[in-house]
Amino acid sequence: MNRERRELLRDAAVDVLAEAGGRGLTHRAVDAVAGVPLGTAKNYFPTRDALLRAVAERCLERYRERADALAGAGPTDRAGVAALLAGLLREVAGPGRPRVLAYLELLAEGARRPWLAALLDPIAAADFAAHAHLLRALGAGGSTERARALTLVLHGALPHLLTGAPGTLAAAGLDDLDAFARGVLDVVCPGATTEHAL
Description:
- The protein is mainly alpha-helical.
- Helix content is 77%, strand content 0%.
- The protein has helices at residues 3-24, 27-34, 40-44, 48-71, 78-93, 97-110, 114-137, 144-163, 166-172, 177-188.
- The radius of gyration is 19 Å and the shape is elongated.
- The termini are far apart.
């Protein structure tokens, strides 16, 4: 099978899932978004589960690409870590929106399909390790509890950023992502500036 067309179909499936939700993810819709003849997506991904698997694998690839790009950033101070976190949240509401929407739709599907949940598991699991690494840059050591708290706060912000309801964003402090990121760090790592600060 044509590798380029397969990638085109996977990306189209991510976009369909993001825009139309789980019920809207059909072979016909993927064909339309990809601009290919009807029946093409079904040839590459014969069942709906195969289509879901393709989207999950593409989301995981995109996540790893993004993680690799961020790995080089390596902030070493509080301001740098706060700026990185704010940038990640901005991406969720901006260019990363389709990927994150698709991911959240997949999580809902994964609640009923254990094989899909297993495919998605590395995405969230990797965030805990990545945030622990960031906290070490602040002198917070390898505190598992703090990394968990930071990760869960950021994950909890995602649906609100995606829906963009102004009242909720303001109530959560997500209408100012720079201040939000600084505030989260203040709560998770108050005054951590050296390796022995905690």
